Structure formats: structure tokens, C-alpha cells
Amino acid sequence: MTQHIGIVACSAEGAALCYKTICVEGAQLMGAHAHPEVSMHTFPLSEYMEFIYRDDWRGVGELMLASAHKLAKAGADFLICPDNTIHQALPHLLDHSPLPWLHIAGEVAEYAREKGFKRLGLTGTQWLVDSAVYPDKLAARGLELVRPNPAERKEINRIIMDELVYGVFKPDAVAYFHHVMKRMKDEGCDAVVLGCTEIPLIMNDANSPLPTLDSTRLLARAALRRAVA
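Given the sequence above, the corresponding C-alpha cells read:
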């Protein structure tokens, strides 16, 4: 018997990519057209943003916890959240969660360690890159981190929140991410974390100057492995 995956979703584009990855790549582990049972719950992104704009991560955690309880009632065995930013709220809810969670930054960090990367660039929302979500997980595995500079953080955040979460993908956005990643390469990075689950919709190994660590798909694949183990 496979385990039932519960997805605590936040923004639509990233959650959809995570869900699709589980369903499509499940067949590689389970056979044609097969994948584990999956349930998803999400509150409107606007409700999350009300708390995020106030820097109220306990409030964010309460939304995530409410989703967790709904998914537990639906029969999920464990939970994932395909949104890097709101992982800041996990410490506020884990002791009260009805189910265990996989941590997106932990999965990325473990994959980077296994691949032999040493110094990672980080891209994502301003709230994510300002946080300890990735530094803590990377440092625990002996990995170094390079963040965007303040101007880059602001522009990347604008691209994510004004374009990517709405499914708007512009050549100028690709060019900007390429510019930031090239600077990170020049600073000694040997890979870059796509630390917003929408960034893989425009950036990948084919158009990045650095190998990419796709947080969305790495989390989905970790969930698949756990579900079929």
C-alpha cells in the first residue's frame, strides 16, 4: 500500500507544478498511469498575504495548520507544502500538526549535498531570502549560501508576486534571473536554488548559467519516494 500525500498549497502555479510532478513521475515508480493518492487544500493566497505583509508568521502557521487538519480528515498520511516562503511558519505549527511534514529546504539541501555542490545561490521572494529557512538547512549539511543583493531581492520579489504567481512569463524576467545567477556564479556558486515554486516555470538548466536546484520538483519527488517506500 502506498501512502496518501497531502499538499498544503499556497500559490496556484507552484502547487499545480508540484501536483503534476507527483502524478506524472509516479508512473516511473509504480507503473503506467499510476501514482499515490493525493489530496490538496489551499486557502486563498490573499489570506496568506494578509499575514505575510504584517510579518505575522504565527498567523500563516494557523492557516497551514487548518489545511493540515482538513487533509488529515481526508486520509493523508503526511504533508508537503510547495511554497518556500511560508515554511517560515513551520516551527509555529509542528508541535500541533496532526501529521508529519517533509521540509522543502531540507530536501533541496540533501540533494545538493548528495550531488557534491558546495556553495549555493538562492533565489526566491524577499521574505524567503531574508529568512533562515535555507541558511539553517544548508549550514546543517556544510553548504555555503549566497543571497541576492537588496536591489535584486526587490526585483525578484516583484517578478514573482506581480507576474509568476499569475502565470505571466516574460522574456525580461528570464533575462533578469539569468543576470542574477551569472553574478552568483562569478561569486563562486556552483549551483542555484530555485527557492520559489514558480521560478522553475521560467528557469532551468537549459537557460541558467548555473545548475538549478528545482525546489518544487525535488519536494514532489521526495514525497513520491516516501509514499511508495
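Residues 55 and 127 are 9 Å apart (CA to CA). Try to locate this feature in the C-alpha cell string yourself.
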